[in-house]
């Protein structure tokens, strides 16, 4: 595993344990060159999920892309990365149990919004404002009213 600080390819596992829902193994690693500690997750390789975008094109589902979008919505909010990972795990679990191999980006956005509403209302509105591409203050206000 490449060190995120110095890019050295050798590291040792310091601690290893299952994630909360048992779908992954969480490993704490230490770089053998610079000593930096970092966390990795090992997950079962499964059938890839394809996201069908609004323009009709498709791309492989990217967990990190979803994580970054949610992380931006949660900026300066009391939401930690572990909560975001659990939210994404929950979405992925729903997709896998439904045996879906494709999902429209709109549906993925809705699944994310449903879970964000329970996690943090401000993050929900931030994510919705980008995802739904509000064109007016009325659309924004309507979404706020729908939340409550």
Description:
- The model has no long low-confidence stretch (mean pLDDT 88).
- Helix 1 packs across helix 2, helix 2 packs across helix 3 and helix 4 runs antiparallel to helix 5.
- 44% of the residues lie in helices and 22% in strands.
- With 148 residues, the protein is α+β, with helices and mostly antiparallel strands.
- The N and C termini lie far apart (45 Å).
- The longest helix is centred in the middle third of the chain and has 17 residues, at 81-97.
- The strands form 2 sheets. The chain has a 3-stranded antiparallel sheet with strand order 1-2-3, with no helix packed on it. A 3-stranded mixed sheet has the order 5-4-6.
- It is built from 5 helices and 6 strands, in the order E-E-E-E-E-H-H-E-H-H-H.
- The relative contact order is 0.12.
- The chain has helices at residues 63-73, 81-97, 105-119, 121-131, 137-147, and strands spanning 11-18, 24-31, 37-43, 50-52, 58-60, 102-104.
- Category from helices, strands and their pairing: alpha+beta
Spatial strand order of the main sheet: 1-2-3
Mean pLDDT reading: 88
Annotation field: number of helices: 5
% residues in beta strands: 15-25%
Counted beta strands: 6
What is the alpha-carbon Rg in Å? 18 Å
Summary, kept brief:
Helices cover 44% and strands 22% of the residues. By secondary structure, the chain is of the alpha+beta class.
Tags for this model:
22% strand, three-stranded mixed β-sheet, three-stranded antiparallel β-sheet, globular, 5 helices, 44% helix, alpha+beta
Write the layout of secondary structure elements.
Elements: E1 11-18, E2 24-31, E3 37-43, E4 50-52, E5 58-60, H1 63-73, H2 81-97, E6 102-104, H3 105-119, H4 121-131, H5 137-147
Parallel strand pairs: 4-6
Antiparallel strand pairs: 1-2, 2-3, 4-5
Helix pairs in contact: 1-2, 1-4, 2-3, 3-4, 4-5
